[in-house]
Write a structure and sequence with these properties.
With about 80 residues, the chain is α+β, with helices and mostly antiparallel strands. The protein has two helices and two strands. Strand 1 and strand 2 form a beta hairpin.
């Protein structure tokens, strides 16, 4: 049985040795940032709002509901 090359699975060969190719944390950070949600009970109009602090609009995942002042155009419930 022939094993697949490690080069197809995140490894590079340098000086006859296989080294892992490390992913860049910036890409992970960007993806996770989009999962941000706040727990605000009022307006979201200050840096206390975790969404506003990261430069993102609040979403349906947030707990601010109708009091939000940091809404995006997509904040409304699509089922309505």
């Amino acid at each position: 049985m022939c094993s697949p090359s490690p080069g197809f699975w995140g490894w590079t060969k340098q000086n006859e040795m296989w080294d892992p190719v490390w992913s860049k944390l910036t890409f992970i950070w960007t993806a996770c940032r989009e999962l941000e949600k706040c727990g605000c009970k009022s307006g979201c109009d200050s840096q206390c709002c975790s969404c506003r602090r990261t430069g993102l609009p609040c979403t349906l995942q947030c707990k601010c509901n109708d009091a939000c002042l940091n809404e995006s155009e997509n904040h409304e419930d699509p089922s309505e």
